[in-house]
Amino acid sequence: MLAQLPADTVGDGWAAKGRIMINSMTAYASRTGAVGPVSWVWDMRGVNARGLDIRLRLPDGIDGLEGHARATIAKSMARGNVTLNLRITRDDGGQAMQVDTAQLDAVLAALDQIQERAFAMGVTLGLPTAADVLAHRGVMVQGQASDDGVQIVAALTADVDVLIADFCAMRASEGAALHTVLAAQLDQTAQLTAQASAALAARSDAQQAALRTALARVLDTVADVDPDKLAQELAVLAVKSDITEELDRLAAHVAAARLLLAGNKPAGRKLDFLAQEFNREANTLCSKAGAPALTAIGLELKAVIDQMREQIQNVE
What we know:
The chain is of the alpha+beta class. The chain contains 9 helices and 6 strands, in the order H-E-E-E-H-E-E-H-H-E-H-H-H-H-H.
């Protein structure tokens, strides 16, 4: 019985998005931007994962940005470990120095209090100059930028949409490369399966000749042989060495994998399941080979399947 594919875990909405072939879970994208003295750097990275794991590292105080970024990522991909970082810097170097009027008032009040206390005690103090007053800490401060917080949030929100689109474009590009590799490996698997079918016919002739020779030796040495028992044993040997079912399943798995590669839904989990089934059939073929040619083909099949499984781990 041919192995059944597990149920799809992604809704039909993916088909409506017009995705072509497969996507990779491995990708990277970055962007920079600025509004006035505020500048920022985005970077977004993705690696393979069993599901969709979104990790955001965003500065505090930017209302709505985290929810928007998380929702956009969730709509854009189905699987992968995705990390999104945002670093914001502010350049206030060009701002003029300003007087902090509240601090100035506090300094002047303190000086007035000192003068009155000194006068009451008969102590004469020199009058402070304006430079003396300005020299007090906190009277002169760096001017603050008058940037618009709403404008910055809007710019960051628009920027993260472009970043995610760039990230998805790289996933698609990597997926196209994966598609080429996997298609070639499936072609190689199909060719090796066909070679095994041809080698099976040659093995059958050799097995029959060897079996006749062995049977002749048994009949020469054993006087009384039960024909029914002998026929039963021969049938068991034939069944144990038959690999027709394994070759049929390999061909069916190749066809199923090609359909998944040609589809427009995330196929990584189903392809991983098929790769396990490929490996199972190749192992059985090697154990039943009974001929050097078939053993060599089985080992080559296992090598191709192992390489294919490694590539499939990055398919969304």
